[in-house]
Amino acid sequence: MSPRAASTDGAADPARLWIVVGMLCLLMLINFADRAVLGLAAVPIMREMGLSHSEFGLIAASFFTFFSLSAAIGGFLVNRVATTWVLAGLALIWSLCQLPMLLPVTVTALVANRVLLGFGEGPAYPVAVHAAYKWFPREHRALPTSLIAVGALAGNGIVAPVIVTVIAAWSWQAAFGLLGLLGIVWCVAWLMVAREGPLVAEGRVTGSVVEPEKQLSYRRLLGCRTVVGVEIVGFSAYWLLTIAIVWLPAFLHQAFGYTPIQAGWIMMLASLCQIILLPGVSSLSDGLKRRGVSSRIAGGWVACAAVLASGLMVILMSLSTGSVLVIVCTVVAFSLCNVMFVLGPVLVADVTPVAQRGAALGMVNAITTLAGPFAPTVMGVMVDASAGTPEGTRNALLLSGLLAVVGASAGFVLIDPEADRARDAPSLRMERSSA
């Protein structure tokens, strides 16, 4: 089946297409809510268990023990196994590991929960994106990616007031259990409605025969400038995302004087901003590509500009004392940084043969998310070094903002899908000739 025929077949069932995207959006909502619950419960957990900021940071970082490894494994797995079954299995793993939190919890049990949760959630985003790309051709991928990302970000912000309310009304353990039950419900619904998309392979047509798309060595693929650029910018953006998930509610409470409920609403404002921003930016990117603008500008420069602006806003936040300015910086900075997680996978897919796309997305995600274990630990150590004073929080935010500025600047130079495809074209032609 040619790409054109596949696209036509996929368009014959638009309802199924958007049902799948909607389910992937819900999956990522639950996924990130599972991560965010620890940060939203940071204050009662530290108080109940007698933890310092450094100790809590280490517990939060344990989530990433096998996160990057499982992301890479999951990427290679979906090159051979249907994404429908892989996603169901992943969701079941992280849902079941939440339920024991309803029992009396020790520090050891909390660490085990985060480690297992991280293993199950590591491949979730790249596999979900790969599943969506089986329904959308190259020039239409940014929008569905943004909708999946919105689900993830909604899990971090929009459900935050709900989680905080559950914690206040019952306990933080009840919030963990509720999310576990929601994950199991999603698994059942997904297996009832999900299908694999028609764009499972691409190639070129010679007469009536479709020649399958050739492949690159993974060493060559991972060494191309676009992939390296996406990894660098993505690392700095993921640093900010990890702070938002693990530390931002506590920072807003302890350093800027907001109550936990107010911090939850500020997180919700950031998510609402993302729901508007990300589809808008993705539509802009897709529209520019359809008008002939290069992927380097339409995807790479747009993403890098967003992360650069995010870093500058975090720096401004670290220097701010005004209540309104802190809210504005929080909402804008932690919204803009997520543009990279929408356009980054699109850029990687642009330079990757379809047969290798799942593995490439998984490996890039594995490298990008290495920021995960470092960010909460470094932030916690910096706060404790200042005896928990607001100055430590401000220094931690300043470091994060500078990291985003440096990463985005590197991305402007490195990301260039057109140049990478031109570089790889001779290798692909040579492989075809030898075949």
Automatic annotation (TrEMBL):
Residue ranges spanning the membrane: these are 17-44, 56-78, 84-112, 147-170, 176-194, 227-252, 264-285, 297-319, 325-348, 360-383, 395-415
Record localization: Membrane
Q: Which InterPro entries match?
A: MFS (IPR011701), MFS_dom (IPR020846), MFS_Na/Anion_cotransporter (IPR050382), MFS_trans_sf (IPR036259)
Its placement in the membrane is given as: Multi-pass membrane protein
Looking at the record, the residues that make up the Major facilitator superfamily (MFS) profile domain are: 20-419
Q: Which Pfam families match?
A: MFS_1
Protein name in the entry: MFS transporter
